[in-house]
């Protein structure tokens, strides 16, 4: 959840105010019509260049990928680029509508400064989710035939993501149950899943287990459901800074895409390649639409993403990992989120008192954040590295996220042929 204090949508009806205290209707309308800050194009261009150059080098030159499969990836990339521009254009439009409905918040990490009094439109992750779904559905026209074996699972994946976007928006408005909502949204995927339910036993453990392959049956689907719950909530609780929720998604999605291309290029098994291509078809539009939102959500944020986005992003990456059959790798990509969850567990379990906002303390005089004793990675970094600005702290956390992804690639490289 973003570092904001949500405004009450029914405050005008629940409290009595003097006529002089009320904001004039024209002032309210003007505030709703006021444009949000322009997207931070410079940041997006740098991030895009940093990722796209090595990624498309791998796709076009380094690996000998079948022409048909390469074409599908490039068509999906072109649609993802279109989704990026549509999202950039739609966010300012949507912001005016949510402001009219009093869906806005105040940035807690800027309290006591002029920026802390600005109404920031809330729940704009709904734009990213809708644009993602529209362009992912359009991609079916170019890639899947009516008798495609992957079409059922692709549509089931989109159904779960769509369900999660809807429930995430409901949670933003009504404050729903964090654990139940992702479980419900994962049902279409779990019911339609027709892939294998086996796991490969690591080679060092084979003599002790007595099996090389273990069929988990219904337990595998239970694991899929738990993974979906973890991914959605782990993005949601590793938050509180401008750009952190979207930034970590951008980093993980980039790592997922590079991992998939490497696996496609190194494999000769057609089904294995298709599983990773399937993952790419969902990860590319996720990355593109997230970059569009990042251009508004980066410090200083002019748009809050809401639970809608964190649930959508977490579910999409869970679906990508499950149907691409690399859930172990995905969990290593999520290493900072796992660490943040373990730090948060005593408070989430009620062992230690848990405040509503487990945020660092902001000093309006210096503009610096100070870590508290709350169990989050954000506060841990501040306690270890000292006071710093919100922007600098977010950069540190995103660099840590990138290092975790690099560690995963190194781990896979050194354990290849020995672990599995």
UniProtKB/TrEMBL annotation:
KW Acyltransferase (keyword) present: no
Protein's UniProt keywords contain Transcription: no
Gene Ontology molecular-function annotations: glycosyltransferase activity; metal ion binding; UDP-N-acetylglucosamine-dolichyl-phosphate N-acetylglucosaminephosphotransferase activity
Coiled coil: none
GO cellular component, one term: endoplasmic reticulum membrane
Keywords, ordered alphabetically: Endoplasmic reticulum, Glycosyltransferase, Magnesium, Membrane, Metal-binding, Transferase, Transmembrane, Transmembrane helix
Main location, first listed in the record: endoplasmic reticulum
Entry function: UDP-N-acetylglucosamine--dolichyl-phosphate N-acetylglucosaminephosphotransferase that operates in the biosynthetic pathway of dolichol-linked oligosaccharides, the glycan precursors employed in protein asparagine (N)-glycosylation. The assembly of dolichol-linked oligosaccharides begins on the cytosolic side of the endoplasmic reticulum membrane and finishes in its lumen. The sequential addition of sugars to dolichol pyrophosphate produces dolichol-linked oligosaccharides containing fourteen sugars, including two GlcNAcs, nine mannoses and three glucoses.
Region feature (Disordered): 1-34
EC number: 2.7.8.15
Membrane topology, record value: Multi-pass membrane protein
Transmembrane segments: 43-61, 73-99, 120-142, 154-170, 179-202, 222-239, 246-266, 278-296, 308-326, 332-352, 393-415
Family: Belongs to the glycosyltransferase 4 family.
This protein's name: UDP-N-acetylglucosamine--dolichyl-phosphate N-acetylglucosaminephosphotransferase
Major enzyme class: transferase
């Amino acid at each position: 959840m973003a570092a904001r204090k949500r405004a009450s949508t029914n405050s005008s009806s629940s409290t009595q105010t003097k006529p002089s205290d009320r904001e004039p209707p024209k002032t309210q309308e003007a505030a709703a019509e006021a444009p949000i800050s322009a997207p931070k194009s410079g940041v997006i261009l740098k991030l895009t260049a940093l990722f796209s150059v090595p990624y498309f080098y791998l796709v076009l030159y380094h690996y000998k990928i079948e022409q048909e499969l390469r074409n599908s990836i490039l068509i999906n990339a072109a649609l993802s680029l279109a989704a990026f521009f549509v999202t950039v254009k739609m966010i300012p439009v949507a912001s005016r509508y949510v402001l009219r409905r009093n869906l806005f918040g105040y940035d807690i990490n800027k309290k006591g400064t002029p920026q802390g009094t600005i109404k920031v439109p809330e729940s704009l992750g709904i734009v990213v989710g809708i644009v993602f779904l529209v362009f992912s559905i359009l991609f079916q026209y170019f890639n899947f035939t009516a008798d495609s074996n992957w079409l059922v699972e692709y549509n089931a994946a989109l159904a779960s993501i769509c369900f999660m976007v809807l429930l995430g928006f409901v949670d933003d408005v009504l404050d729903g149950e964090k654990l139940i909502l992702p479980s419900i949204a994962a049902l279409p995927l779990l019911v339609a899943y027709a892939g294998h339910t086996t796991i490969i036993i690591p080679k060092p453990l084979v003599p002790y287990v007595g099996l090389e392959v273990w069929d988990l049956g219904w337990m595998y689907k239970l694991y899929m459901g738990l993974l979906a719950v973890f991914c959605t909530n782990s993005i949601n609780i590793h938050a509180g800074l401008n750009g952190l929720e979207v930034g970590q998604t951008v980093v993980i999605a980039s790592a997922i895409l590079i991992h998939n291309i490497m696996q496609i290029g190194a494999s000769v098994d057609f089904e294995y390649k298709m599983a990773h291509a399937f993952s790419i078809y969902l990860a590319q539009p996720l990355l593109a639409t997230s970059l569009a939102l990042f251009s508004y959500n980066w410090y200083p944020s002019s748009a809050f993403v809401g639970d809608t986005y964190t649930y959508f992003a977490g579910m999409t990456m869970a679906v990508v990992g499950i149907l691409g059959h690399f859930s172990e790798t995905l969990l290593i990509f999520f290493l900072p989120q796992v660490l943040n969850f373990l730090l948060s567990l005593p408070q989430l379990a009620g062992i230690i008192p848990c405040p509503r906002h487990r945020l660092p303390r902001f000093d309006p005089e210096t503009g610096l954040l100070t870590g508290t004793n709350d169990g989050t990675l954000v506060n841990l970094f501040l306690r270890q590295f000292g006071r710093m600005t919100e922007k600098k702290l977010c950069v540190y956390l995103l660099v840590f996220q990138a290092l975790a992804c690099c560690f995963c690639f190194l781990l896979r490289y050194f354990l290849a042929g020995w672990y599995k």
